[in-house]
Amino acid sequence: MSVDETMVRRIATLARIGVGDEQLPGLVKELSSILDFVEQLNELDTQGVKPLTSAVEATMRMREDVVTDGGYPDAILANAPERDDDYFAVPKVVE
Amino acid sequence: MGDLTELNLAEARDGLAKKEFSASELAQAHVDAVAASAPLNAFVLETADKALAMAADSDARLAAGTARPLEGLPIGVKDLFCTKDIRTTACSNILDEFTPTYESTVTQNLWNDGAVMLGKLNNDEFAMGSSNETSRFGPVVNPWRGADGQNLVPGGSSGGSSAAVAAHLGVAATATDTGGSIRQPAAFTGTVGMKPTYGRCSRWGIVAFASSLDQAGPICRNVRDTAIMLTSMSGFDAKDTTSIDRPVPDYEAALTGDIRGLKVGIPKEYRVDNMPAEIDALWQQGIDWLRAAGAEIVDISLPHTKYALPAYYIIAPAEASSNLARYDGVRYGARKAGVDLEDMYAGTRAAGFGEEVTRRVMIGTYALSAGYYDAYYIKALQVRRLIAEDFAAAYEKCDVLLTPTTPSAAFPIGGKVDDPLDMYLNDVFTVTVNLAGLPGISVPAGLDKDGLPLGLQLIGQAFGEEQLLRVARVMEAAAGFAARPQAWWKDQ
User: What pLDDT, in 10s, does the model give residues B49-58?
Assistant: First the structure.
């Protein structure tokens, strides 16, 4: 399975990574070669095999539904590129 | 007193207990060694003041008779572990000068046990790589050099950890392993690296790469030190939902030296095409060592081995594309201004992610996208089950498995960067273990024709760390690996 420039551009949009036109040919080649490599999985018949999502079969633990953490906005905002009072600041979203 | 950086972890521990030297002297010797190691590029941040302050505290405790298990022992920390008030970058530009306001559980466990922090260690960006060449801080240089004096990679992604331990810049280092990132660098540097069972060490506070595969573990210079480090790093943590609540044994006490009657499985599928004859010979040597120690050798089959790497290169990128969605220039790290929010995201991520990370996020995004999800992601998870079932079947016939750790010794810097697939093949023997969630350990076993170290890997059963370490210690004793790299970096 190979990808073309249109597909690479679509993937880049989904991944929210800006990709310049000059990068497209290289990415087409690299992503296609990786996809060709993983193609060999199709040699295997996996009909009826249950997907394994976790290596350790464990059930989620339950805990009391109480607040156990929080109350330190300054620590949470300490690394923000831009903040406004106790909020993260981003470029204007709604005109 | 001699050069205190010559001491391995257990030796330093015992010397401190006997008051042969102080923790401050031990820390100072290591701080000086780190400061003189710039050509290796193993450390991305040195924390000398912190090390000396922690060592002073250790000296007070040693004097008061309240020493903890790792009291005063200087270690390095892979830059993937969040360290409170100390810059943590995962060696990615996108994290910029990120300074956590919290401490990872594993490093907190180590500090609680008295360890002393020397600094943060280089790694491949977001732990994606097998050569430590994708770091924003540049490549790490292996302390070992080939016959021609060429600079070699230290393996990856924990290349700073493996190089630092091999060069005696710390008695141990923390590391992480998603597809081989502890064991492969250990093999390339003549050190011992162990990935414990998934769930044994908390993942909380470790920068996430592929959460169902990531696991922390130690790199040390011998098996005993590895057992001591693992005892302190392990344990249940309510903050990690995949942490397993079971007691942590004293792993050092498991090193009895007795493996009589143990069944060691040899998986025939690990004899791959083009494998150098010397690796095959070393593997046979390992078999002979364990047989001579009283183990029984059993031929076994792991039929889906060849599909592990392709399955991994769907599953790991898929999880990475999801985990790395958080780097959006809003809450932490670098931001590149844009005309609107979408443009800010795209620009920030384009500027912040390196080539390999971009490649993997894009592969993962593709594999998870509408129309391709079943064909790639679900298919890979089905194959993952077949691989896990291979191991389950094998462990009905044997107790541990013995394989080579890597298909080659360390290669030259720049040797594989232009071919991602060739680089991926480094993990062919290690990646199955992550997919099945099992513990694995690499032990230095010999040198290749150029005088470079080679490792053998032992794979255990889930939570079979005690047995695994016991066999590893027996193999280490039989191998008698004593070679050391020349300290060329000190003269530069």
Answer: 999 999 999 9
The DSSP output letter for B91 is T
- Residue A68 near residue B227 (C-beta atoms within 8 A): no
CA distance B366 to A35: 10
Nearest CA in chain A to B197: A56
Average pLDDT over residues B57-64: 98
Identity of the residue in A11, A35, A82 whose CB atom sits nearest the CB atom of B365 = A11
Q: What is the per-residue pLDDT across B269-314, written as a single tens digit (0 to 9) for each?
A: 999 888 889 999 999 999 999 999 999 999 999 999 999 999 999 9
Contact A79 B369 (CB under 8 A): no
Q: How many A×B Cβ pairs under 8 Å? A: 166
Record: fold of B4-259 = Amidase signature (AS) enzymes (3.90.1300)
CB-nearest to A81 from B309, B329, B420 is B329
| Nearest residue in chain A measured CA to CA from B310 | A38
**CA separation for the pair A58, B128 (Å, rounded):** 27
- Do A17 and B436 count as a contact with CB atoms less than 8 A apart? no
Chain B within 8 Å of A24 (Cβ-Cβ)?
A: no
Q: How far apart are the first and last CA of chain A?
A: 42
Confidence check on the interface: ipTM exceeds 0.90, yes or no: yes
Q: Which residues pair with B300 in a beta bridge?
A: B267
Q: Is A48 on the interface with B (CB under 8 A)?
A: no
Whole-Å CA distances, B191 to B82, B163, B251, B283, B301: 24, 9, 18, 17, 28
d(CA B180, CA B195): 8
Is B80:B335 a contact under the CB 8 Å cutoff? no
Pairwise CA distance, residues B313 & A87, whole Å:
38
Is the peptide bond between B157 and the residue preceding it cis, with omega within 30 degrees of 0?
A: yes
Q: Phi/psi at B399 (nearest 5 deg)?
A: -100, -40
Distances (CA, A) of A44 to A51, B33, B91, B276: 14, 52, 37, 29
**Nearest C-alpha neighbor of B361 from the set B202, B147, B126, B171:** B126
Over the stretch B115-149, which tens digit does the pLDDT of each residue have? 999 999 999 999 999 999 999 999 999 999 988 88
* Domain ranges, ordered by start, for chain B: 4-259
